[in-house]
Structures are given as C-alpha cells and as structure tokens.
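Progress against Task 2.4 (sequence-to-structure conversion) is shown through the following example record, which the project officer requested during the mid-term review.
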Amino acid sequence: MSVIDLVRYPIDRPGPARDALIAECRRQLTETGCVVLEGFVTSAALTSMNAEGRELAPQAHFNTTQTNCYSSADDPSLPEGHPKRVFMERTNGFVAGDLIGPGTAVRGLYESEALRMFVAACMDVDEIYDYGDPLGHLVFNVLRPGTQHPWHFDNNDFIVTLLTQKADAGGKFEYCPRIRSKQDENIGSVAATLAGDDTLVHRLDPDPGSLQIFYGRHSLHRVTRIEGDRERHTLILGYSDTPGEIADAERTKRLFGRATPEHERAAREGRERVSV
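Structure tokens generated for the chain above:
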C-alpha cells in the first residue's frame, strides 16, 4: 500500500487531476520558489515515519560550526558586513541514509517512482534521478532544542523534504525566494537580510506530513531556533539531474562524521557533486 495519500494527490495516475496539480505546483514554484503539499502522506504512514524518526534520531551525527550563508571560508579582502564575512552558529544533526533500513515508511516514500516522476514534472524537466550518494540520498535532519539552521544557500538546485515531527515552538522555515541568480549574486539584498531586514522574507510553518519542494540554491533560507523540549525531524529526499552523482568526501565527513569507499571512487572518477 502506498504511503502517499493518492486520493488527495493522484500523482500515480495520468489525467486531468494530476495535470492540474502539476500546473499549480509549477505556478507556486515560479512565483515563490517553493510549494508545500499538506497531508501528502497518509495518517498511518505519518505515524510510522514519526516513530522511525524518533528511533533513528539518537544515531544522528551532530556538529556545531560557525558558518556564512555560502558555507565558505572568510575573505578578509572584503569589507565588514559582506555576506561572506557574516558568520552564524549552526548546529545540525544528520542520520545517514545507510542507517534507514528497508521496509521503513520513509524509504517507501523515497523509492516511489511516481513521486520522483511527479517532482520532475513539477520542475518541468524530463527526468531526475535518485541521488547516488550512499549516505546523503535519504537523510533525517534532527534539530534539538536550542539549535538552529541559520541563513544559507543550498548546494543543489532543489530540495524535497517532508516534516515528520514539529518542535514545540520555533523551527519556522523562512526564505527569500530567488534572491540571487547565476547572473547576479545580489550582495546588497543578501547582506540586508543577514542584518535583519525582513522585506524579502517569506515564512512557512508546515505541519508534519507536508511535502515541500524548494529551489534552494538561489533562495536564501533558514530554520529558526528550536524552542521547548521536542526535536524537529525532517526527512530529506535526495534527487539529482545527473545519474550517479555523489557528494565530496570532505563535505560528507562534516555532515555525517564519516565517508565511504564509494566517495573516494567518485572523486577519482569525477562524479562529485559541485558545491556552489
């Protein structure tokens, strides 16, 4: 039985209903760079996913760093206040994909061909592929009380997530859609946002079970500090526009505390995902 609510979201059946859903998602992605599909999974699947996340959370690798929004080194040649010189505290926990076993509801969602094809259609591309990274293809992000994911740009063009557990308070998703482009880094607006100007900021507070498709490479975004006693758990579904792509070993070690022989092979073969 599918973990997706196929009555509400008939992504597996070609026809007018699926076409209308895709058109609406494309409209939202064009206008705001983000779409949220509430209640995307069934209530039974969400219950299972929540339990799976809570069971796996103690295995998350945590690290606390000072980072800028580009995850790059400081550049003293630039003036104070330049985004590359604004560093923020980031504490993140990640459960690697090789710890998420077969038969779990979260893996059932990720392995859905209908979902992968639906995401590709929403982005108006012919095909996307399962991310080839053995650790990063399917990930639980764990944010503990008192932690945050500060302003940043993603390493990849788009990201697909599903919230499985909400924090007691805080943990809001804030973003500035398409604040930069390949042609223009828009340093002034990025710097203003980092300094506290919320003119361009959109805010979302999705409920558990909501699927989110988001253009993260060009949209500055963050998750606000977690408050209360409950962790925030988010499932990250990894896709790529290139088959067999894999993260570089050093970045993988920072995220998961380890890398695999496959990461070393990918480096030799030039299959590493490029960070920008």
